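Why show two proteins at once? Because comparison is the fastest way to build intuition. When a single record is shown, students tend to memorize it. When two are placed side by side, the eye starts asking what differs. So, the first record is below.
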Amino acid sequence: MSAALVTLCFLLRDGVAGQEVLLGRKKTGFGVGKVVGVGGHVEAGERAPEAACREVQEEIHVHVAEHDLVTAGTVDFVFPARPEWNMFTTVYLSERWAGEPRESEEIAPQWYPVQKLPVQHMWADAEHWLPAMISGERIAVRVVLAADNENVAEVHSEAWSRLP
């Protein structure tokens, strides 16, 4: 079974107390109740950057141009107990967009200080790769989830040499 192609896009801004990242509480579907990045599946015939821009528009009502996306890396999520959940995710960052993030049926956006990510409310894997990508590391990560589909069994990461 092949992994679903997925994108995540993390908007970054300078806040009063330092850099902030936009995350959102998932209101429906996979991961409901968790704090997650904005993103979703790459549709047939769509490139990953197009999907990231579309998902940002749909989920938080702001426009990000493809040329404002910075590729941060990839995360290959492996769910041995539920292989149909496997996802290969391309992660983007952006410091430029048009509009103010607003809540949608799917996500309730909120800004968080980069130095105080709400990891206790996120998927358990996020603390293993998100801080590194936000700080400028360009990495390829493979996360193997435990049998409970919540906790992390293994994390492997390497520099992503294909990025500038």
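Second record. Ask yourself what differs from the first in the token line.
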Amino acid sequence: MAVLKVIEVLANSNKSWEDATKNAVEQASKSVKNIRSVYVNEQNATVKDGKIDEFRVNVKITFEVN
């Protein structure tokens, strides 16, 4: 039986929500090992001069605890 833990991570990107999600996983993997999945909990964006300035995601990352 595996023991799994979930953490919540906020990340951003100036390209896309997908890129923001990738950034979240890449940053988390620097300190968390055995990442199993990522769930996008929320997406939002900031607007500047009538255009999207920054994409933001709130994700839940699941990893196995040794």
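One difference worth noting in the second protein: The longest strand covers residues 51-65.
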